[in-house]
Specification:
This protein is mainly alpha-helical and 151 residues long. The chain has helices at 6-19, 28-35, 39-51, 76-84, 91-94, 108-124, 127-131, and strands spanning 55-58, 64-67. It contains 7 helices and 2 strands.
């Protein structure tokens, strides 16, 4: 199954919480309470997000964390890569020579293309997009035609 890790999912939750008040300094404990995540988990996420240059950390009594850029300028791909590294569907997409079948593989280029499409979709979605209420899901199943007779 293709899915992001729990930490990456939680990192997006924390980033959205920070984006709701972008100029405010957020204490790790406040973010943990607001997102209902454990404080050690939030602290770990904040450290990784700061190391990736997505947020800044200020020490001291009035310290905390805040976004380094506007939420419209931070992509979902950047958050993903801050937590998981470069997006690659297979080892050979990420590292040339990682597979001994590479020289005669017929699908490697297709995995590269699939990885690129997913990366582009994630790059096109911003943190600001994640803050918005999503549209309702499309109806499931086949549409059933209904005839209404007007009297």
């Amino acid at each position: 199954m293709l899915r992001v890790s729990k930490l990456t999912d939680y990192a997006t939750v924390v980033m959205v919480a920070m984006a709701e008040s972008p100029t405010e300094l957020h204490a790790a404990s406040q973010l943990a309470e607001r997102t209902r995540l454990e404080l050690p988990t939030v602290s770990k996420l904040l450290k990784q997000l700061a190391a990736a240059g997505l947020i800044e950390s200020r020490r001291g009594v009035n310290g905390g964390y805040r976004l380094l850029r506007n939420a419209t300028e931070i992509s979902v791909l950047e958050i993903f890569e801050a937590m998981e590294g470069k997006l690659a569907m297979t080892d050979c997409v990420e590292h040339h020579g990682a597979c001994n079948r590479e020289t005669h593989c017929q699908v490697q280029s297709h995995w590269r293309r699939i990885s690129a499409v997913i990366a582009r979709a994630m790059a096109d979605m911003s943190l600001a997009d994640l803050k918005q209420t999503p549209p309702p899901p499309p109806p499931r199943g086949k549409p059933v035609p209904i005839k209404i007779a007007l009297a």
